[in-house]
Design a protein that fits this description.
This protein is of the alpha+beta class.
Amino acid sequence: MANQRAFRMHSNLLYSTIMAQAGTIAKAFMEAVQNSIDANATHVDLTLDDGRFSIADDGRGFQTLTEIEEYFEQFGTPHVEGDARYGRF
């Protein structure tokens, strides 16, 4: 069974980030789906329920705890040429 972890962000920071990078909630959801595609997902579930949302996919995912720590210790990581179809950060 896969180890699951929940990552949280203060709602004010989340809103500010969405507005700065995407501009709207709809564009933020589109960005999340594009991230799934960049992770080679063939299936993406976006669930909206009572002001909450979740996104799950069957993409590559993180392979090690070290990889998770590296990605989440720094907010935003630039891509290198050819590693993503949509992503830049």
